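If your schedule permits, I should be very grateful for your opinion on a structural question. Thank you for your consideration; the sequence and its tokens are set out here:

===
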Amino acid sequence: MFGRERKPDPDVIEVTIGPRATFDGHLRCDGSIRIEGVMEGGSIETLGNVVITASAKVMADIKARTVSISGAYKGEIDAHRVELLEGGRAWGRIKVASFLLDEGAYLRGELVMQEETPPEPFVLPRGKEPIPVVSEAEGQRG
């Protein structure tokens, strides 16, 4: 009965800001957050997901596992995955490992991919010895 505390499931929505609610401040929790109303400032920090519904307007910085945007969002997001869904609009900076942009969504800002950088595809590998350069005149003599 008084054993170890169980961690909440990050997919279970613990906090809902309803369609007629307005919130301004800092929100932290372990579970997921669903926003249907207005968030005018502050920040959101969760180990779970943040769902911004079509009726929502959010101006806040977000740190979460996954952020799904169907409404309007402005701020900075630091997440593993961001989904900008059809009808969703976002302005600001998004730092992610995985990004989904649906047709009909709008993004104005900066998208920064956080994963390890792959090798530059346009750089030719360097050999141990330089490649000899032969002019046309030298090539025709031989």
